[in-house]
Design a protein that fits this description.
Elements: H1 4-14, E1 20-24, H2 25-28, E2 37-38, E3 48-49, E4 53-56, E5 66-74, E6 89-92, E7 104-107, E8 117-120, E9 130-131, E10 142-144, H3 152-160, E11 165-169, E12 173-179, E13 183-184, E14 195-196, H4 199-209, E15 213-220, H5 224-234, E16 240-244, H6 254-259, E17 264-268, E18 271-272, E19 276-282, E20 285-290, H7 294-312, E21 322-326, E22 331-332, E23 338-346, E24 351-354, H8 363-368, E25 371-375, E26 381-382, E27 387-392
Parallel strand pairs: 5-6, 12-15, 12-16, 13-14, 16-20, 18-23
Antiparallel strand pairs: 1-11, 2-10, 3-9, 4-6, 4-7, 5-8, 17-19, 19-20, 21-27, 22-26, 23-24, 23-25, 25-27
The chain binds ligand LQZAQKY5 and molybdate ion (MOO).
């Protein structure tokens, strides 16, 4: 049997980093910078006022109160500001360029607010309320290093620097294909013996949630020709194919039947759920074949695909945030397998507990879980109070 770590390595090695592409700011959200982003200009790009008020020379407010004629009006956006005439004040608004020669910004509250002449009652020291050139960013500086995950603030600073698009790693293009003659699309009538198809929407959503582009190829019946046709229809332009179902030990194991000896290796992995797995290539395209049981599929995504896909998209941090917390109730685990149990974190008590049983068909319990408990291969029993690792989902 293959270890979890060995199979994780096989899957990680299948994927190569996605290319770095110029992408609009909006579409860059959640993606990762593929190159350092340098500042093409200073921020602020010019000295400007941080207050609505008056710009004056220091010598003109040495003795207070002082009344000065207003020689200029400078709202934000003026592009033709001339030097400040000595012995005068410029009325200036927040963000407006400082007139050359101005040294003191007097907030309007410290004056009589005059438009033609202004009486200045008191004044701050020179430099106060003045935003200097490059105070935030110097031209040429690396503002966002390669590997930065683009969030709202990163989009903000990139826009402030004039970038309309960013060099980010493109999302991984993933094709999700479920197999199973018993499957019916949600929304259609269900005959006895049939079930609704849940793996493809779940897996596609899991990929979308990490910033990948997931498409669903209509699920196929358990026939090799149907699977090959589905793969051929959809494979072009795909970085990764993920199938679910048809990989265990029975008859009608369509994925195994179609892909064994065709570049995909099937293996039992020492984990529960998620034991039957496969990985390889279909033509040139990486393929990962997940077990059909819904919880097995999802757990396999968390353990193998999420980290590999995030690494391919350049994420510096590929694992879920993890805590180690005491169990609030005992649990058992199979010998020789790493068990992944749906879990629940009690944030008040600081404890975790298994959430539902270990059965890999218990999907509603997965939906109610907020963490995944990881019980090592050599542990068969844990008592209440024993520490256990929990991956925080969410
Ligand atoms: N004799 C053995 N039987 C099984 C073994 C084994 O080692 N020996 N392994 C079991 C384990 S563990 C798993 S996990 C499953 C994996 O089976 P498959 O990958 O071949 O999946 P299927 O048989 O196609 O389906 C399993 C189960 O999941 C339901 N399913 C499948 N696809 C979907 C879907 N897209 N949406 C919702 N539900 C789905 C399917 O109806 C079955 O109930 O094999 C065990 N058996
Ligand atoms: O691998 Mo199976 O997931 O134990 O049901």
């Amino acid at each position: 049997m293959r270890t979890v770590t060995e199979h994780a390595r096989v899957i990680a090695d299948l994927l190569v980093p996605t290319p770095v592409e110029a992408t609009t700011l909006t579409e860059s959200l959640g993606l990762v910078l593929g190159e350092d982003l340098r500042a093409p200009l200073d921020l602020p790009p010019f000295a400007n006022s941080a207050m609505d008020g008056y710009a004056v020379r220091a010598a003109d407010v040495a003795a207070l109160p002082a009344t000065l004629p207003v020689s200029q009006d400078i709202p934000a956006g003026r592009t033709d500001v001339g030097p400040l005439t000595p012995g005068t004040a410029a009325r200036i608004m927040t963000g407006a360029p400082l007139p050359p020669g101005a040294e003191v910004i007097v907030p309007v509250e410290r004056t009589d607010g005059g438009a033609d002449r202004v009486r200045i009652d008191s004044a701050p020291a020179p430099g106060i309320h003045i935003r200097t050139i490059g105070e935030d960013v110097h031209r040429g500086d690396v503002v966002l290093p390669a590997g930065t995950v683009i969030g709202a603030a990163q989009i903000g600073v990139a826009a402030a620097l004039g970038y309309a698009d960013l060099p980010v790693r493109r999302p991984l293009r993933v094709l999700v294909l479920s197999t199973g003659t018993e499957l019916v699309a949600p929304g259609r009538p269900l005959a006895p013996g049939q079930i609704y198809e849940s793996n493809a929407p779940m897996l596609a959503a899991a990929f979308t949630a990490i910033g990948a582009w997931a498409t669903i190829e209509h699920f196929v019946v358990d026939e090799v020709a149907a699977l090959r046709a589905g793969l051929d229809r959809a494979a072009a332009g795909t970085d990764l194919i993920v199938t679910s179902g048809g990989v265990s030990a029975g008859a009608y194991e369509v994925v195994k039947d179609a892909l064994t000896g065709q570049g995909v290796e099937f293996a039992k992995v020492a984990m529960q759920p998620g034991m039957p797995q496969g990985a390889g290539r279909y033509g040139d395209i990486p393929v990962v074949t997940l077990p059909g049981n819904p919880v097995s599929s999802y757990v396999s995504f968390e353990v193998f695909l999420r980290p590999a896909a995030r690494a391919a998209m350049g994420h510096p941090d590929i694992t879920r945030p993890t805590v180690t917390a005491p169990l609030s109730a005992p649990l058992d685990s199979p010998a020789g397998k790493r068990q992944f149990r749906r879990g629940h974190l009690n944030a008040v008590e600081g404890t975790v507990a298994a959430w539902g049983g270990p059965g890999s068909h218990l999907l509603a319990w997965l939906a109610g879980a907020d963490c995944m408990l990881v019980i090592p291969e050599d542990v068969t029993h844990l008592d209440a109070g024993d520490p256990v690792e929990a991956w925080l989902l969410g």
